[in-house]
Amino acid sequence: MSDHPVPGSGHHTSDRRLVILTEGEFGPHHAKTAWGVIRFGTDPIAAILDSTIAGRNVAEWLPGHDIPAVATLAEALAMPEAPNALLIGIAPTGGKLPASWRATILQAIAAGLDIESGLHTFLGDDPEFSAAAAAAGVRIVDYRRPPERHETAVGRRHAPGKKVILTVGTDCAIGKMSVALELRKAARAAGDSAVFVPTGQTGMMIDGWGVAVDRVISDFVQGTVEWMVEQAEGRGDWIIVEGQGSLDHPAYSSVTLGLIHGATPQAMVMVHKPGLAKHDFDHLPEVSFPIARLPDFIRIHETVAGMVAPSKVVAIACNTMLYEDEAEARRVIDRIAAETGLPAGDPVRFGADGLWADIHRAVEALPWVARAVPVV
Prior knowledge:
Layout: E1 2-3, E2 18-21, H1 32-40, E3 45-49, E4 69-70, H2 73-77, E5 85-88, H3 102-110, E6 114-117, H4 127-136, E7 140-142, E8 163-169, H5 176-189, E9 194-197, H6 201-207, H7 221-233, E10 238-241, H8 253-263, E11 267-272, H9 294-306, E12 312-318, H10 326-340, E13 344-345, H11 347-350, H12 353-365, H13 367-370
Parallel strand pairs: 1-7, 2-3, 2-5, 3-4, 5-6, 6-7, 8-10, 8-11, 9-10, 11-12, 12-13
Helix pairs in contact: 1-6, 3-4, 5-12, 7-8
């Protein structure tokens, strides 16, 4: 049978144990879904299913995560604590299922595993997969399936005392979700009531609710983000909304604009990957669009946001993975802080406590937060 997440409520099973399929794609870019679930998810992971790294361990790439890689599903099923769900661990351009993966998915269904996918290709709508799932009595969960709730934005005002922060970025797939999750962790450690709003399939897999807004009809993107933020405000005071895309990316700018005008954040955190020269068009290497200069890009975001509600970029979250040397990475962060006049850090690599403290102070000092200016 086919299933999909219910926005606003958890959908994880209490005893879910995953095997993550990444065949030939295990890396921080193409397998960002796998990496996100490994880093931030709470479900136990039995194995990574990827014959190209079989015999190795995820700890080589992500220290502290002891997860073996196996070549076949049979090996994963033979483990003492066998998986009961197969998670599709890639987020390819266009979100299509690799044809060569069909046999593995059918094998998993026949073995009684639920199938969890964040692809644009809805596996639950595939006649062969859906028939096999019905026969085996397992679920196919398509995280990108949009909700039935279709609403345009109404200019909702934030509830009194609520602070909404949106992560935005200078490119796609550079860590906006990871930054948001690290900031929530730091906020809670500091005693702040913080909520993460998942707006993409990986965030939904991790947190158990949300909507993949890149699959929502364009007229309803802002409205969907608006009511998700409303739900989050019922759960905490500091609302950290996961960003998507990039405002100047020729392929993915629309989802960014929808998030900015739907969330109406009082503040934004700019996620930046220093050393990256051009936008992500890995499927079209001949296409080249340069990464924007930070000071100019910050002003553009504040202007675009301000067309609907005042907002300010209050910090820069750097992804310094292109700098292996820690001292060099810190020098790059310091240079960006000087260039922008804003606090900067790498919350994934160096922790988010200090950056959160800077963000907290900056947001509390914003005049539209201090005066509780309503969104109109």
